[in-house]
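Customer escalation, tier 2.

The customer says the design service returned an amino acid string that "doesn't look like it belongs to this structure." They asked us to rerun it and document both sides in this ticket. The original structure tokens are below, unchanged.
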């Protein structure tokens, strides 16, 4: 009976006792301050010695314990999608601690704590009251405010969400800090610390042309605080 409870079959010599999950990972541990409630933070994944192909069924939950102080600042669905439950503020708390539990289909579980870094962004409310907010750059002029609780965050139908500053610098939710200059045709040259100058636009993005080597890159995803691109010339991810 105990073997059946653990998911094994005592009549089958090849049937093994179920093992607990042995790992929990988040694909991102950083989030910018001021993002709206419900903003995607990370995807949670589990590893299990019984599930070499990663196709098993798991449930993810918050759990009380060491490192669970800020569980209430986030939401977590059964598929492992972690989102903000409040507007995070760097000045109030530069990091948030959460504790998660993953449970496999035989009710074996593992718990682990994580620290989410809150990224500090410039404070626009320090401007004099009579000074109007900075205008959006022409290549992002159609972007719309995300909401009253995140007044400097905007979303573009083609470029995604970004944080506006009073200079050409923007904080992009996927690319991080970028310096953008419109080219007069609705497209833009964008400088990125790791990649140098890119050229992209409404009909191009997620494709970006890198001027340093004349290569087209395709933005794939942001993981662990950095963007990843597919290099069309080498066929590799960088």
């Amino acid at each position: 009976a105990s073997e059946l409870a653990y998911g094994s079959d005592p009549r089958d010599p090849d049937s093994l006792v179920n093992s607990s999950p042995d790992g929990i990972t988040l694909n991102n541990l950083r989030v910018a301050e001021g993002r709206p409630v419900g903003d995607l933070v990370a995807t949670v994944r589990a590893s299990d010695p019984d599930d070499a192909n990663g196709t098993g069924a798991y449930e993810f939950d918050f759990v009380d314990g060491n490192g669970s102080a800020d569980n209430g600042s986030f939401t977590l669905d059964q598929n492992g999608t972690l989102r903000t439950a409040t507007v995070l503020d760097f000045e109030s708390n530069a990091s948030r601690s959460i504790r998660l539990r993953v449970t496999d289909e035989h009710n074996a579980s593992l718990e682990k704590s994580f620290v989410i870094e809150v990224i500090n962004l410039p404070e626009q409310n320090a401007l004099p009251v009579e000074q109007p907010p900075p205008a959006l750059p022409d290549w992002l002029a159609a972007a719309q405010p995300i909401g009253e609780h995140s007044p400097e965050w905007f979303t573009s139908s083609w470029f995604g969400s970004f944080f506006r500053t009073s200079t050409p610098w923007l904080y992009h939710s996927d690319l991080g800090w970028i310096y953008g200059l419109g080219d007069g045709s609705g497209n833009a040259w964008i400088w990125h610390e790791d990649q140098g100058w890119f050229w992209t636009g409404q009909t191009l993005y997620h494709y970006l042309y890198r001027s340093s080597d004349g290569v087209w890159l395709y933005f794939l995803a942001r993981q662990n605080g950095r963007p990843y691109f597919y290099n069309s010339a080498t066929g590799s991810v960088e």
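Tier 2 assessment: The sequence is consistent with the input. The chain has a mean pLDDT of 87. The CA atoms of residues 230 and 237 lie 5 Å apart. Sent an explanation to the customer and offered a walkthrough call.
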